[in-house]
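Q: Make up one entry.
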Amino acid sequence: MRMDVATMEDFKEAWRANNRINLELLALCPDESFEFKPGKGKTIRSNYVHIIGMRRAWIEAKLPKEATAISKMDWKTAGRSEIEHELGTSSQLMEALFERHSLKPGKMSLAVFFAYCVAHEANHRAQIELALRLNGAEPTVAKLYALWEWGKK
């Protein structure tokens, strides 16, 4: 059985879809929901700041000069436009990081590192959605399903 080999452009396209979902979910969060929590967890705002902060940390390891383009945001005060901007900047630099990824013995392959990054962000999106639901600001089912309509984007 032959399996297709993913190209770097495939990884980038999938990463862009991941980032689009982050932005689309952010757009579904009213400003007044930024302090909502899913129980004892992070607020919606701090989940987004954490996602961006982790991207910055990964980028700093291989592209330290470029990583300075990503602001260190305050998890208590970061606003929508700042979060949107930093998601865009950090997403582009993550693509550069994927291109720069090298396989060293005992290190994650590009595919495994990529999957780890996407899984990490998906976990935080789930926390954000749960915070919205538990605090009475759940988006409609249609809007949530629209996050998964990749073919229409």
